[in-house]
Inverse folding.
């Protein structure tokens, strides 16, 4: 911003000429600065466009690597899948693959994280206000299956399920803990909402929403053991919710 000093001349004509020159100079300066700003903005805008497109392309390629890696792990197992195998499956170089992930462990963790994020998003939909046309038992059952079903399905359907589970336990403990915490927070909200509408009675049961959410979540995780197919796991989850909700619904009648 220009700070102008107003100088008074004794001769009006000189003052007028000075004013005209000063205005011309200011006009030229503003014009030059505006032009420079416009060029700068255009350059920044163009740079941002390129940056945005480049970022989107990288994200797309990264997702493609995770999808291909997931396929390789399920088909050939973790140990027999190499970084070379993943790169060849995608038709990219090892160098390109390593520019996205440090090693095979890193890729496996990212695959697991992606599965958990998608599962949590699906569970959130099952517990949302839009899903309340279904009864409480159905909402909870669907949310539990959405959260726990995907990885269980992957383990059961893969010939290398036992190996995948071992690697999952070795590499992804923190991911599982975070996913459990976030899911139980969702369940607490759903249980509180159901108690408020009278669908369940937590008060008379003496069980807090947090305790009830933990029981539901950990019990469902336990139902995975010994389930030889996904249908068995789903039936177990359905029966668990049926017994659980029946107990909370009847607690106000005792």
């Amino acid at each position: 911003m220009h700070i102008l000093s107003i100088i008074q001349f004794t001769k009006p004509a000189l003052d007028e000429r000075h004013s005209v020159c000063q205005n011309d100079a200011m006009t030229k300066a503003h014009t030059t600065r505006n032009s420079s700003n416009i060029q700068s903005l255009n350059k920044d805008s163009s740079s941002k466009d390129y940056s945005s497109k480049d970022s989107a392309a990288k994200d797309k390629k990264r997702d493609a690597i995770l999808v291909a890696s997931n396929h390789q792990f399920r088909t050939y197992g973790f140990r027999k899948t190499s970084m070379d195998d993943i790169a060849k499956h995608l038709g990219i170089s090892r160098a390109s693959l390593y520019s996205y992930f440090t090693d095979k462990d890193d890729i496996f963790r990212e695959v697991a994280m992606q599965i958990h994020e998608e599962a949590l998003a699906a569970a959130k939909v099952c517990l949302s206000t839009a899903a309340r046309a279904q009864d409480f038992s159905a909402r909870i059952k669907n949310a539990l299956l959405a959260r726990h079903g995907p990885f269980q399905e992957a383990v059961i359907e893969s010939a290398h399920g036992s190996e995948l589970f071992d690697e999952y336990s070795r590499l992804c403990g923190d991911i599982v803990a975070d996913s459990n915490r976030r899911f139980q927070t969702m369940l607490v909200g759903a249980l509180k909402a159901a108690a408020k509408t009278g669908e369940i009675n937590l008060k008379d049961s003496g069980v807090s929403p947090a305790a009830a959410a933990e029981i539901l979540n950990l019990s469902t995780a336990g139902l995975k053991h010994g389930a030889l197919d996904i249908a068995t796991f789903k039936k177990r989850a359905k029966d668990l919710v049926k017994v659980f909700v029946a107990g909370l619904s009847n607690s106000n009648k005792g």
